[in-house]
Amino acid sequence: MSGANDVEELLRSVVTDTTKKLNLSKFTIDLNLNALKGDGFLGEFYKVSVKDDESNSTYYLAIKKAPVVKKWREENSIDMVYQNEIFFYSEIVPAFRQFEQEQHVSKPFDSIARYFTSSSQIGSEIIVFEDITKKGYILREKDLLLDDEHAKLIFKTYGHYHALSFCLKNKKPEEFARLTTPLHPIWKNFGEKEGFLIFLKACLKDTQDALKPDEDGVVLEKFRKYVDNSKEIFLESCDYKGQYSGILHGDCWSNNMMFKYQNPEILTEVESMKLLDFQLVVASTPVHDLSYFFYTSGCKKLFDKLEEYLDIYHESFSKFASEVGCDPNELLPRQMLSEDWKKYSHFGMMLSTMLTKVKLISKEDSIKMIEAADSQKEGDKVNENDFDEFNFDRALFKQRVRDIVIHMHEIDAL
């Protein structure tokens, strides 16, 4: 299903299903068939408004549709990606809500966009959400690094989010197993894909080249293993062997976070945030989520305050855990968070070499990159130089990835 008429039919079908869930009997659908490209690599987005003809109120929807190109679907595990995300919104979120009600939680977790409906038909997967841009949430420019205010809010938000599943696991272990057993380990799956591995190794090579032999000799020597054994180390970093695991966000780069500000004109005093795209949801260590967002969006000034941010995270985690009668230091000891960071944060570091490069290319080139992938035919080989035709700030890339690697060395995590 890829023609314009087929797409319209699919969109109208899920929108009509949404109107039933909103209990609308008379309504008008305004459908924009121009897909929004360039911001998401695992789907196209459409905007729809539905007017209730009886009350004159309008509902704004954001619809995420899976790619249809066979090679792109195979290379990016699209079947499993959408199975994960639909399961998250249709099963995990309702289970979280029920758990919060059972525990009489005073402030339920509200940093997830409202979900309406979905279709899991292979090749035509689609998910309908509330369009939160209409409530003032915006996507920051992807090349921007985080400041202290945003970093604190993100660590605090993840602390609350992770605590939900840790506590559910503690009080309802069978329910936790029901919610996590069906999840596909997408990052491990990516770690077996030729295209992903070629791009990862190329980015790690570029990162190695960003290190200065005269200043970073010891660091350079430590880093060589990531280039030489990139697949093995990445897969190892995905495989958490500890006991402190919960349900993660999974895909934590900046394009999957939206923020609302007190003054939207100058984007100051961030009020709240929403987490988007739970397609890579998995049960694992919180360090995977935290190191992923921190190293793909942070800077040296923030890296130097890592332990302070982990304190903020753990305080938020502990607040929720204590409210529902759990011992936070039993569920996730603060010291273990730092110890697991040293063992598993190279997951985020390795991804940061890729995402830093992606974030520094223009939206226009992002679209070209997706279109180039869409046009690939069966048998076409991915080349590590394929990315070089797209423009990005190479000097800024080198500065950013060098800061990350130096920091990893300084905290003995390299």
UniProtKB/TrEMBL annotation:
<dbReference type="Pfam" id="PF02958">
    <property type="entry name" value="EcKL"/>
</dbReference>
<dbReference type="InterPro" id="IPR011009">
    <property type="entry name" value="Kinase-like_dom_sf"/>
</dbReference>
<dbReference type="InterPro" id="IPR004119">
    <property type="entry name" value="EcKL"/>
</dbReference>
<dbReference type="InterPro" id="IPR015897">
    <property type="entry name" value="CHK_kinase-like"/>
</dbReference>
<protein>
    <recommendedName>
        <fullName>CHK kinase-like domain-containing protein</fullName>
    </recommendedName>
</protein>
<feature type="domain" description="CHK kinase-like">
    <location>
        <begin position="127"/>
        <end position="323"/>
    </location>
</feature>
